[in-house]
Amino acid sequence: MSTAPARPEERRPSKTRAAGVSIASNAALIALKIAAAAITGSVAIASEAIHSAIDLIASIVAFVSVRKADEPADDTHHYGHQKAENLAAAIEGMLILVGSGVIVYEAVSRLVSGAQVASVGVGIAVIAFSLAVNLGVGAFVRRRARQTDSAALEGDAAHIASDAVTSAGVLAGLVLVKLTGADWIDSAVALVVAVWIVASGLRILTRSSRVLLDETLPADELDAIRREVVAFGDRGVAGFHQLRARRAGAHRYVDLHVQFRAGTTLEDAHRTAHELQDAIRGQLGGADVLIHLEPEDRVRPGTEIPPAPGPERPPVSAG
Predict the structure, then answer these.
(1) What is the pLDDT of residues 210-249, one digit of tens each?
(2) Where in the chain is the domain with CATH 1.20.1510.10?
(3) Which residues fall within 8 angstroms of residue 233, CB to CB, at 6 or more apart?
(4) CB burial class (10 A; 0-12, 13-18, 19+) of residue 58?
(5) Share of the chain above pLDDT 70, in %
(6) Which phi and psi angles does 254 have, rounded to 5°?
(7) DSSP state of 81
(8) How high is the mean pLDDT of the chain?
(9) What top-level class would CATH report for the domain 219-298?
(10) Yes or no: domain 2-212 corresponds to CATH 3.40.50.300
(11) What is the pTM of this model?
(12) Is the CA virtual torsion 74, 77, 82, 84 positive or negative?
């Protein structure tokens, strides 16, 4: 038996609105940075334009994926489309790595050729404005990602955060160029920006790949599930095993075998199992929970649950 998590339609506008704001801000910042890079000849500003272009692609991917992930299950996708968000996050991570390679190439080329930076004041103004916009939009997208538990928006927020950090670095570099006249600082800052972007890309790619490979839920969530099962000891639950749990997008999927005491009717076991599912969903903030009902003689040694478990009893481990 299983219960499916509620899929509130109001969640979609919240996610798509955040992705839409990110798309609009990135598009505007790209135009500004390209113009500033052309005026100043700064490779650091050019690297920022490349970074924002990657952010724009990532925002579009996030926008499409959150809409796809919220589509209900159908005949060809029985478990829904939630992993579209995790796939989008993986794509975003790869885009970040590609962009960092372009920045490294441009920065090294400028260092070798000894290119100069002009109209530094224009560059400082554009990057300062970009930093302010990214801080505001990043906070908004990050808040929506936490509210909706969206992997795609989380990846997009990470993009924007890395863009804000790199903007701060570029801004500091341009100020130093203006104060010292040392044009090589511009390219050196671009290389530092590239390193930061690589770290961000690897972090997003690693996190998303874990979900795509069905990594189990965090230990604290598994412990919460075990505590709920043990708490049903006085409701006829005699034990449980084969607890498995995973995540796809913002949804959790849990399945386990639960044994009921001898003499428990099928109707009572069925009703108790539904109540247990609701309790587990309450702990996880929503989940698809599948419980396989078994008789008491299927209890495995070491996984027994007493009729009235005491509060000090350590949780049963029944993975």
Answers:
(1) 878 888 898 999 999 999 999 999 999 999 999 999 988 7
(2) 2-212
(3) 305, 306, 307, 308, 309
(4) buried
(5) 92
(6) -130, 135
(7) S
(8) 82
(9) alpha beta
(10) no
(11) 0.59
(12) negative
